[in-house]
Amino acid sequence: MNSLFSKLSAALLLVVALIGGGFFMVEQLSTRLYYEEITQRLNASIAMYVTGEMQLIEDGEVDREALSLLSQRAMIINPTVEIYLLDPEGGILGHALPPESLQSDRVELEPVLQLMSGETEMPLHGTDPRNLDRQKVFSAHPVMFGDHLEGYLYAVLGGQKFDELADSARASYVQKLSFGALAAIALAAFLVGLLVFGMLTRRLTRLKNEVQAFTESGFDPATIQPRTGASENRASTDEIGQLRVAFSQMSGKIREQFESLEETDRLRRELISNVSHDLRTPLASMHGYVETLLLKNDALGEEERLRYLEITRKHSLHRRRLIGDLFELSKLEAAGVEPALEWFSLAELLHDVAQEFELEAREKGIAIGVETRPDDSMVHADIGLIQRVLENLIRNALKHTPRDGSITISLSEKPGSVAVAVADTGCGIAENELEHIFDRFYRSKNTQEAKTDSTGLGLAIVKRILDLHGSRITVASRPDHGTRFEFDVPARAA
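Predicted structure:
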């Protein structure tokens, strides 16, 4: 009884039993009322005909022979009729029944008066003197002597004889047939309900098995087999089908989240490994130089002492930049981070950033040029983050461009965006390395790269910032000819 099908079957059985029992009771009641209404309408005038045959009361005296004769005649016409002679207050003056068979010596007059008025709906029930637990349909008519009301003739339609016949008919063929037909209909409804519930629960059971298999497999969406066919397409439109579609989509999302968590964990381990590697050697070197300064301070010349301090300072600055980049990248990769979008002039930002690196470029003998137009579009982005992208790209270009080289920053309009390009005449990047340059801690294998003190995080930060803006960065490079980075920024429509 723990399965959904068992519970639904029990509920269906109860509903069918209640409906069947209720229908049987209503059918019995309506049949009885219908019969009583027909009987009362057909025999409503029987009391009038009987009273017209003979004078039953004269000066308050009941003619019992006449009453007995009329009762016999009425019973010949309808064996279930019982005749009673009432006084004006409803007391029974006479009848043709055994005296010991009566349970009451009076009849309620209100129904009698209602029937004779003709302003009531039928069937109308009145007192049954032989059984006070029941009320019967009846016929009634006043008994007059001249202009004086002597009483009423009260005819019970369906007396004790009728009750006996009705009780015996309960076991009749027709009654059994009626009950059997009702039982057959109820059984058929129950079986059809079981079939429908079976079809519904079969799909739910299949979905439950898929969920269970999905859970046991470690949340592998491959365990959810796609279903095809016309019947499956039709079923997918109902609630169960929609539930399965929703579960399939949810399982894919869950798997994506697991894969993302696995990738994040992999990156975390890689990060720890790389940080440990990048920090261990320089720290050991710094430690060695500091110990040398402490132990041999008196023996070292001024020039050598300054050289040791300068090396230590460079190592310290590099580690500081590394830690700063790590914190920045971690913050950018945190869940829920969103850029603070605003409208600003990208051309002005390019000039400001280029001016920031002008002195460093001049010292290295590298020319920095900015190519913009006065009508370049406004852009909608996080100005601080876009500035960081430009700084990292220019700084990267400065590291890889030899003396007498050049760096060019340019803008070009595209539908709905502005393209920014940072190109240099540096050493370039090998084709097999292009797909890795945005990875964390990746450094080019070329000679020029090896001479730099790069943290290996600058381009990873660039890509993450542009991902947050829904933008994509591309790179084109030829060894010994230079490299060109390009990305788009959403622009204000003209």
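Summary: The longest strand covers residues 135-145.
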